Amino acid sequence: MKKVVVITGYNSGIGKGLTALYQKDGHTVIGLDKFGEFDNKTTFMVDVADEQLVANTFDIIGNLYGKIDVLINCAGYAVFGATELIPTQDAKNMFDVNYFGILNCIKAAIKYMDKGSRIYNISSACALYAVPFRTHYSASKAAVSMLSYGLRMELKDSGIDVVAICPGDVRTNFSKNRKKTMLTNEKYGQRIEKSAKQIEQRESKRMTIEYATGKMYKIFNKKHTKPMYIVGKSIKFLNFVTRLVPTSTVLHFTNKYL
Ligand SMILES: NC(=O)c1ccc[n+]([C@@H]2O[C@H](COP(=O)([O-])OP(=O)(O)OC[C@H]3O[C@@H](n4cnc5c(N)ncnc54)[C@H](OP(=O)(O)O)[C@@H]3O)[C@@H](O)[C@H]2O)c1
How far is the CA of 246 from the centre of ligand 1 (A)? Predict the structure, then answer.
């Protein structure tokens, strides 16, 4: 059956990869993004943090296509730096996109969804572990995962399925778009700069978009879903190991190596 699929952040990275896969199989993809070229039929210029604009856009989509079978919430970005020194407004802006942006889209889309429809929220491996200097981002993604699990239970009787996807590192524009605060003080010394460099050095080790979205697409085509999927072999392994040891051990080694 051909589906009507709405993807936020469709113009780059994971959203772009998923758009191509759905289109290849003949599904109708409607893309939402902040910048690009938009025809207001299959592509719409939307800041997901703008609740009213999101609501209006989903009403247009609902009227044009009559239903939404799949909503994939990809739009998101990260802030980086010492939690104490990142301007609180920067953290709030990120939550407005990463958490409330997803909430805005779900609330606007759900009236056009029916039994069998699915909502995929792109969370992160950072929802599974806190990472130093990426604390706000981890918190926003943990919130996305909790939103997904709670909604999954609430929507059970309606037949609308909600799934959190937790990818490890993927080679997209994500690193470039990360909002960095490089301020430091005597508590952190060179650690912030070191951590930023370490992220840069690992860039080539990230999964390719094709690999990560290919894995996601396989998950999306499953008849039955689980509440959460990890994408990336090393994160799957780490998740298995870290569930066997105390949190203090997990924090000790995360802090040592990241
Ligand atoms: N790449 C990774 O390693 C990784 C790992 C785990 C989870 N994720 C998550 O995966 C999702 C997709 O990220 P990506 O890696 O594909 O990064 P990306 O290449 O930067 O793509 C993100 C897309 O979201 C758009 N976007 C950002 N803020 C928006 C807003 N307020 N309204 C509408 N669109 C907005 C961006 O538009 P602009 O470029 O115009 O800002 C961009 O097109 C994010 O939620 C990210 O947190 C990524």
Answer: 32
